[in-house]
């Protein structure tokens, strides 16, 4: 390969992989310094060219896409591998379609292997993806949701369809180099393209129906969870109400003790008694954030942390009366945030805290959760639990 071909591979093809991975599959950029290892890729090009081993150059070209996904983005390794194959097929299909459209519009064929023309059409493909990023926000959100909900079986089915489409478009592309006039062959090409995309639409509808079914099941599970939260909060409120009744019943006794300690100038004993009363009152005081779901979730977490002797909880602010999130989405967000905080606090020995700040400014809303941790280094990309198969999804749910 010539040097300009390598430059095209790194720049133009790299842009396509980054655009699709970030804006259409929802991959977040990695802030680790390991991304700078990508600089080694162009430095090894002379070595690959010098070795001149069969298929080495071909494999090294497509290794660029793998490295971009591996070093530039977060997500687990298996997700990056799955994304590579999908992106590879999508880039190839779009480039093949651009070639076919070019022929239909111009009836001019260039020689097979004409790298200059292929790179020009490849640049058109990059412009196509940039345009989708710029103008098609709904399409981006739809593809991200589609990708995040894709099961392994649906992924295999999608790959099979992409392979079939590649064979169809590859056959059409090969057929183009064997004809010279725009006649019956062109009509056949258009028909094949239409049939291929009709098949693709049917596949998407099928997968969408499957995902909708899963979403309904998930909503049902969340509703059950929500009802359990309501029940726990109701029981917790009843317990607090009983404690408050006892506190009010004993208030005259407390006032008498305070007055006696004050009259006898026993300041130290007076302060200790007031602190004891304050601690008892704090334990009885309910959680009132202005949002019933938040009250339920916070109360549950505090109830589970009540055994921690040196635990402190601080709450600042209230939720607005009109909240922009759906109840189910908010339940997922806050439950995962506080569940992660609770698990981190349980690992701490000694003093620990949980702080929540609720703020709003114009159209912006801020929910800040701080908590004690046992370790200063935290890897948000993988779970610390032993059962990694069934855990490690909390941070992903929060991000979504």
Task: Measure the end-to-end span.
Answer: 42 Å
Largest sheet: 3 strands, mixed
What is the total number of structural domains?
Answer: 2
Multimeric organization = single chain
Task: Name the shape in a single word.
Answer: elongated
| DSSP summary, beta strand count | 3
Low-confidence stretches: 387-400
Give the % helix. Answer: 55-70%
Instruction: Please tell me the overall pLDDT.
Output: 78
Structure, explained:
This protein has 400 residues and is mostly helical. The chain has two domains: 3-219, no CATH class; 287-400, Histidine kinase-like ATPase, C-terminal domain (Heat Shock Protein 90), CATH 3.30.565.10. Helices cover 68% and strands 6% of the residues. Strand 2 (352-361) and strand 3 (364-371) form a beta hairpin. Helix 1 runs parallel beside helix 6 and helix 10 (251-263) packs antiparallel against helix 11 (267-284).
Secondary structure layout:
Blueprint: H1 3-24, H2 40-43, H3 45-51, H4 56-72, H5 77-106, H6 115-135, H7 137-148, H8 152-176, H9 184-249, H10 251-263, H11 267-284, H12 292-304, E1 311-316, H13 327-346, E2 352-361, E3 364-371, H14 394-399
Parallel strand pairs: 1-2
Antiparallel strand pairs: 2-3
